[in-house]
Amino acid sequence: MAKLPTTTKLPSKQLVPVRPENPTDLGFPPGLATELAMGLSSVREICDAYGVTRDDLEALVENPIFKAEYDAAMATRQKEGGLFTLKARLMADQALDVQYKLMNDTDVPPAVRLKASENIVGAADRMPKPGTKTDAPTFAIQINL
Question: pLDDT tens across 97-114, in order?
Fold first, then answer.
């Protein structure tokens, strides 16, 4: 398993600090909880790959956000096709980080930045989907007796 690049500084026995400059930073490496839940490698191998020490992991298991992510991944893993779903989510998390960087890079053309922001909004399930009430054609039936 290749070490994933991260600039995240892990919290020491505290909740995740507020980071308005980067709301994608959860205070722990993205994907760590998911990879631990997948169980495809030992805990030590996964933590080494993410640069997480034993003390870091002990702090993270007390973090409610980390615990919720781990529990959700475990629930997904139990379903048919769960490992495939979790692998796809790991890739989607990395793609979201790329989109966030593109959206905030002033050297990127405005059209690309707009598309990146639309992708993020879509990933957050905030854009109307085709066929929903907001964009579905409406019609009325009137019956006169």
Answer: 899 899 999 999 999 999
